[in-house]
Amino acid sequence: MAKKSLIKSIHDTMWDLMAGDERVLIMGEDVGTRGGVFRATEGFVDKFGEERVIDAPLAESSIVGHGIGMALGGLLPILEIQFADFIHPAFNQIVQEAARLRYRSNGDFTCPIVIRAPYGAGVHGGLYHSQSVEAFFAHVPGLKIVMPSTPYDAKGLLRSALYDPDPVLYFEHKKCYRMITGEVPDEDYEIPIGKAEIKREGDALTVIAYGLMLHHCLAAAERLSQEEGREAEVLDPRSVAPMDWPAIFQSVTKTSKAMIVYEDNRTLGVGAEISARIGEELFYDLEAPVVRIGGPDVPGTPYSKVLEDFFLPTPDQIYAQMLELARY
């Protein structure tokens, strides 16, 4: 075991994957000499060369389009979108091409690409460097969307994503990059995509969250335990497409109360689908209405620190809602 930050775990996992399989290559903006804006590929070009670590032009549609062609040619490209906010120029390639390739070819072709992108607010990045975009893509059959929240999960999910025959969007919360650390085994392992994990056991209510919000929820759950003696169960879906509905339903059936926390705009976010499915499937098991906490419905995360803090759900806000729901 080695203790690593989230970004270090991602860096080392990609390094090992490239060292072990010559089909793996990396392409994105500034991934070469600079090592990526967050240093996720630092040292890669010196080790693996410019033919496998490709500095791309500032053209996301080109990055993804070329990646699809590489995958069709038998390669395993890891494509970096510098910020998730910049992924929109590649929307057509991702949704119309990569996601539908297996279906439109009647299974003759697959599209094994991984698209990495840092998402989320809390780093004073303003509205073009802070977006959560997972809900846009969760609507599209044919795409898998992974949201690792811990260094351990980051390694296992990235290895699974690389060898998945379908396109995988691998979103990493940028505030967690160096804030979150944890033990990561040296040996290779994979975590199945679509398999949730209970990060904290409890029976008072179920809290579902990923990314930065997961860690806020864990802190709030600990406070609830210390101050009220009530134990919240915290579930990390780890991927939002596919979603591990059996794990969610099992937890909510046990606690009879559900709360979903996500930082994306509240309306039509991932939490809206989770809430709807819980209401449909578990209506008679619920002792209280399902609670959702999300970001406000504003066009973007503000640059001002005061307004950014207002935009993001905080551990105090989450705790207050946990307490109210636990006492319901």
Task: Give the gist of this structure.
With 328 residues, the chain is of the alpha/beta class. The chain folds into 2 domains: 2-184, Thiamin diphosphate (ThDP)-binding fold, Pyr/PP domains (Rossmann fold), CATH 3.40.50.970; 197-326, Rossmann fold (3-Layer(aba) Sandwich). The chain is built from 13 helices and 14 strands.
Topology:
Layout: E1 2-5, H1 6-20, E2 24-28, H2 44-48, E3 53-55, H3 60-72, E4 76-80, H4 91-98, H5 101-104, E5 114-119, H6 134-138, E6 144-146, H7 151-162, E7 168-173, H8 176-179, E8 181-184, E9 197-200, E10 205-209, H9 212-228, E11 232-236, E12 239-241, H10 245-255, E13 258-265, H11 270-281, E14 291-295, H12 305-311, H13 315-326
Parallel strand pairs: 2-3, 2-4, 4-5, 5-7, 6-7, 10-11, 10-13, 13-14
Antiparallel strand pairs: 1-8, 6-12, 9-11
Give a structural overview.
By secondary structure, the protein is an alpha/beta fold. It has two domains: 183 residues, Thiamin diphosphate (ThDP)-binding fold, Pyr/PP domains (Rossmann fold); 130 residues, Rossmann fold, CATH 3.40.50.920. It is built from 13 helices and 14 strands. The strands form three sheets. A seven-stranded mixed beta sheet has the order 3-2-4-5-7-6-12, sandwiched between helices. The protein has a five-stranded mixed beta sheet with strand order 9-11-10-13-14, sandwiched between helices. The longest helix is centred in the C-terminal third of the chain and has 17 residues.
